[in-house]
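SAMPLE LOG
Freezer: B-3
Tube label: C17
Construct: single chain, 292 aa
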Amino acid sequence: MDMHHGTRRFRARRLLAHSLVLIALVAAASDALPAQEAWPSRPIKLVVPLTAGGGVDMMARLTAQHLSDQLGQQVVVENQGGAGGTIAANTVARARPDGYTLIFQSVSSAVVNALVYKNLPYDPIKDLIPVTLAGSFPLVLVTNPDLPAKDLGELIALLKANPGKYSYGSSGVGTMPHLAGELFKSMAGVDIVHVPYRGNSAIMADLLAGRVAIMFDGPPTQLGNIQSGKVRALAITTASVRRCCRRCRRSPTRCRDTPFRSGLRFSRPPTRRRTPWNESLRKPGKPCRTPR
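STRUCTURE (predicted):
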C-alpha cells in the first residue's frame, strides 16, 4: 500500500466514523426579495435527497415541524431520492434564490459526491453554503434475525466461510451506508455483495425477507425494529459517545435500550469520539433569520 492510498483510506475511515448525515438546509439568498418583504411570508419547501423512511428523512421532518412552529409558516417536506442526492441538490441549487427552497442534506450529497464525481451539475461550494449543524448519529449494523450470526465475530466468520454468498443493502451508490459496507468489507477481509436501493423501506423489505443479509442504518429508524426483534443489532460505528439517549448517559454498547453487541471502529487507535454530523446549507447572499 503506498502512502497516498493509505492516507485516502484513513480519511475514509475518519469520514465514516463521524457517521455522516448532513442536514443541508439550503436557503436561497434574500437579496432577490423586495426590501420591505419580511422572510418568511409564505410556506417553505424543504427538499430531502432520499426517499421517505430513513434516518435523514426522520430528522428532516422533525426539523420541519420545529421550523414551522418557530417561523409561523409551514415548512413542507418533499422527498427527491436518486443519484446519491445529486438530483435534489441540483434542484435546490437551480431554484430561485429567495429563501423558500431548502435542502436537508446528508454527507453523501454534500461531501462525498463532491469528492467522487468530477462533473456535478452544480457547485457544492459556491451554490450551497452551510447554515448550521442540525444533528448527528452513528450507523448501526443490523441483520435478519434468522441469519446464523449472533455477534460481529460470528458474522465475519460466516462471511469468510461463504465468500460472495451474502449481500448487504444501501440507500444508493456513494451513500454513507454504502461506504460503511465497503469499509467493513475491507477491514474485515470479507466478500459480501452490495445491492443499492432507492430508499430504506425497500431495503428493509428485502432484509426481513432474507434477500439481503445485513444493512447499515441510523439508530433512530432501527431502534423499534431492534427492540421488537424484527432485526438483530450486531455493532454500531462508534466505540462511545457522550450519551446514548435522554434517560441514559452510557455508551450505545452498554445502554439497556440499545442492545448493540459491540462498537465497530472506523478509525486508527487511539479512537476519538465518533458520531455522524448534520448541518444546514444555504445559497450565497444575505443570511436568512435562523430560529434557535
